[in-house]
Amino acid sequence: MHTPFDFKEGADRTVYVKPVAVADLPKELQESAEGHKQLYAVHDAEGSQLALVAGRRLAFLLAREHDLTPVAVH
What we know:
The chain contains two helices and four strands, in the order βαββαβ. By secondary structure, it is an alpha+beta fold.
């Protein structure tokens, strides 16, 4: 089974964590944001979104849990 966190051997394992305003998300995601004004997206080097989570710390923990190197994007 393939998951977004499956990286090919030798691939760049750097992921990018960036804040995302809930107001900029599609309506269905806004409704499930549970009152948060900001979420954090985790993207691979090609820009594909791998995850969307409630907190910056959680985004970094998630990346590290999958043996990825998270980098903050402003």
